[in-house]
Amino acid sequence: MKSPVVNHQATVRIKDLLLRTYIGIKEEEIRNQQDVLINVCLTYDATAAVSYNEIESALNYRTITKQIIAHVEGNRFALLERMTHEILGIVMEHNAVAWARVEIDKPHALRYAESVSVALEAHRPE
Fold it and tell me: SS in 3 state form for the chain?
């Protein structure tokens, strides 16, 4: 009996990655690091990972996370939009990623608000 061909589209979520960086345009923001909270959601074809149960067959989200950490902690950003764009670019550099959404929160950026966030998404043409 022949097994049906099944594609396993996996969703990976990197939740609440809390980092410190220079973000903003005010003098105080330029001088002092602030917290940012990064959330990444991505999809990829996990058929090989499901079939072979080997790390080489899976998307290495640990590598992606390390790249995000190095980029955010090693740079300065004027705008949350630009930081979000650059992190999305890091995620999409991995050819296995079919779609990704990055949302970055800047806690207490506005008076009386818990945070302000910017979200961007991208997908690979089929």
Answer: CCCCCCCCEEEEEEEEEEEEEEECCCHHHHHCCEEEEEEEEEEEECHHHHHHCCHHHCCCHHHHHHHHHHHHHCCEECCHHHHHHHHHHHHHCCCCEEEEEEEEEEECCCCCCCEEEEEEEEECCC
